[in-house]
Design a protein that fits this description.
This protein is an alpha+beta fold. The protein has two domains: 34-113, Immunoglobulin-like (Sandwich); 118-289, Glucose Permease (Domain IIA) (Distorted Sandwich). It contains four helices and 22 strands. The chain has helices at residues 5-26, 132-149, 282-289, 304-310; strands at residues 34-38, 42-43, 46-53, 62-65, 68-70, 72-75, 78-85, 92-100, 103-112, 118-121, 169-172, 177-180, 183-188, 192-195, 201-203, 208-216, 220-226, 231-241, 248-249, 254-258, 269-275, 278-280. Strands 11, 14, 15, 16, 17, 18, 19, 20, 21 and 22 form a ten-stranded antiparallel sheet that branches. Strands 2-9-8-4-5 form a five-stranded mixed sheet, with no helix packed on it. Strand 12 (177-180) and strand 13 (183-188) form a beta hairpin. Residues 18-29 and 300-314 have low confidence and may be disordered.
Length: 314
């Protein structure tokens, strides 16, 4: 005896409903991306590489660390980001939050303490105990600098390892606290001071676009360069400018001449690097850029199968 017609119709409907689910279950699930942070732990006041395998530039990958964005760029068949631990960040464990089109993950990052020391300098009293007009001026200039440091061009503008802006020796290292006229300033020295005479040519360490080229009370003649993706370099106490705001620069281009303008004890170049507003050691950052792929290594690589498929038509 054949089953009633309504049972056959019900069974057919169930089969139609289950078919898409079965097909979905049969679809291969993408492998989780492999994420490495190098070096680990990360010293406060330095940057680290975030290496991501298994995602490409169309994945929409974004990152956040210590409230600061982490930008990524393609390199071969992976993505690379630069993570910054500000010089004032307390040692401990912090999450790196990563999100992409169809996933998210938190990665634990260990930030390690680093001893930077203390330096003592003496400057004219009027540069410490400011007059009302000097104080007002310094506040106005600080607002301009903060606006410049908020620049986050989405595109990475540099491709090669960074080079030193001058050839002189670093005589006051990054991160030291400053005892000025006998009073300790709790804010650390946010750059490296190069001992060079007035008139030394200051060159761009990497490609970028000039954000500011102006004279400021504390920093004297100053140049700020945007290198893209939250990375900004700065040069203080200059004697003359070779560029103006909006100028594109290439690695090795002349930015200015060194000098002794602003609050200084003598002629030198103050050179700083900020990454997403985090103050990092520029000398250590130069070493890190030498570990990144450059030139041809930044292009997406074809798979072996793609290369073989292309051969007959060549």
């Amino acid at each position: 005896m054949s089953p009633p017609r309504f049972i056959l119709a019900w069974f057919a409907a169930i089969c139609l409903w289950l078919t898409p689910l079965a097909a979905l279950a049969a679809e291969p699930v993408g492998a989780e991306p492999e994420i490495k942070i190098l070096p680990m732990p990360v010293d406060r006041g330095t940057a680290a590489r975030v290496l991501v395998e298994g995602l490409d530039e169309n994945s929409g990958l974004t990152g956040m660390f210590d409230g600061r964005p982490v930008f990524f760029f393609p390199a071969g068949n992976r993505l690379i980001g630069l993570l910054a631990a500000d010089v004032m960040l307390s040692p401990g464990h912090y999450p790196l939050t990563l999100k992409w089109n169809n996933g998210a993950r938190e990665v634990d990052v260990t930030v390690r303490d680093r001893a930077y020391g203390v330096r003592s300098i003496k400057v004219p009293d009027r540069q410490v105990n400011l007059s009302k007009s000097d104080q007002d001026r310094a506040v106005r200039e600080q607002k301009l600098v903060i606006a410049a440091l908020e620049t986050k061009s989405p595109r990475r503008l540099w491709r090669e390892p960074w080079v030193d802006p001058v050839g002189g020796q670093v005589n006051s290292s990054f991160g030291r606290q400053t005892k000025m006229n006998g009073v300790l300033n709790p804010r650390p020295h946010a750059g490296a001071d190069y001992s060079v005479p007035t008139g030394t040519e200051v060159r761009a360490p990497a490609d970028g676009v000039v954000l500011l080229a102006d004279e400021h009370f504390f920093a004297g003649n100053s140049v700020y360069v945007d290198h893209g993706q939250g990375l900004i370099s700065m040069y203080f106490h200059l004697s003359a400018f070779k560029v103006k705001a909006g100028d594109p620069v290439k690695r090795g281009d002349a930015l200015a001449l060194s000098g002794a303008t602003g609050r200084v004890t003598g002629a030198h170049l103050h050179y700083g690097v900020y990454l997403s507003r985090a103050r990092i050691d520029p000398v250590a950052f130069h070493r890190l850029t030498s570990l990144l792929p450059s030139g041809e290594d930044l292009r997406p690589r074809r798979s072996q199968a793609e290369g073989q498929a292309a051969q007959p038509g060549s």
